[in-house]
Design a protein that fits this description.
Order of helices and strands: HHEEEEEEHEEHHHEHHEEH
Strand order of the largest sheet: 1-8-3-6
Strand content: 15-25%
Shape: elongated
Helix content: 40-55%
Largest sheet: 4 strands, antiparallel
Radius of gyration: 19 Å
Distance between the termini: 45 Å
Oligomer: single chain
Structural class: alpha+beta
């Protein structure tokens, strides 16, 4: 567990805690470590909600499967980030989504009730933990709001350019890497993969975009086309 202290101290949940405070807090929260293979469900849709997770190694994606078997990817979470916190804090009876490992991953699971309830020892840093959790929930909501911006675009081309422009701006460079393969990107943007691939090819032919697998370069004049 100690090998992950530097990562945990940089995470949104444990930000501002010393190593000594972190050690005491993990014992108070009854932290559980779980290994997950690629494509393994960590949380399953319909399961009771009550735990939140923190990615220690690897990455996970939050997804929903509709009645017809179509997948929609809501978000991804990489090492040092939380997942499931909004549903756990809202005391949702059943999870409306699944959380699946995108690759072999190591996860820390925490009981949300223990996070939100000051322990019997009344540790002085528990209030900071609760504040951090509320900030993390707010940040997740902002990310979902950004996704709504992508989905609100009327065409596949506009969805792609809006998403890719946002990734370039977040990276601070025209060259960046996205966490999705082609099918996952189509599921995230909720478009047909074939139509999306056709638009990517058009954007490359028009000199707006260069890419190889999930590595992209958005050329400067593409921002004017977004």
């Amino acid at each position: 567990m100690k090998k992950y202290y530097p990562l945990l101290q940089k995470s949104p949940l444990f930000s501002g805690l010393s190593a000594e405070e972190l050690a005491a807090m993990l014992g108070c929260l009854g932290a559980e470590i779980r290994l997950a293979a690629r494509n393994q469900a960590i949380f399953s849709e319909g399961a009771p909600a009550g735990q939140l997770g923190l990615v220690l190694q690897g990455a996970v994606q939050i997804e929903r499967i509709d009645y017809f078997g179509n997948r929609s990817i809501l978000a991804t979470r990489e090492a040092g980030t939380l997942f499931g916190e909004a549903f756990a804090c809202a005391q949702t009876e059943r999870l409306p989504v699944s959380v699946v490992a995108m690759q072999e991953s190591e996860i820390m699971l925490l009981d949300c009730r223990r996070v939100l309830t000051v322990c019997s020892s009344a540790c002085s840093f528990h209030i900071r933990l609760v504040r951090n959790l509320l900030q993390a929930v707010a940040a997740s909501n902002l990310q979902l709001t950004q996704k709504l911006e992508f989905l609100s675009q009327r065409t596949t081309r506009k969805k792609l350019l809006t998403y890719l422009t946002a990734q370039a701006k977040a990276a601070g460079t025209e060259k960046f890497t996205i966490p999705f393969d082609r099918q996952a990107l189509a599921d995230y943007l909720e478009v047909e993969r074939s139509a999306m691939s056709a638009e990517l090819s058009k954007l490359r032919k028009e000199g707006l975009l260069e890419y190889h697998k999930n590595h992209f370069r958005l050329l400067p004049h593409a921002f004017k086309s977004e």
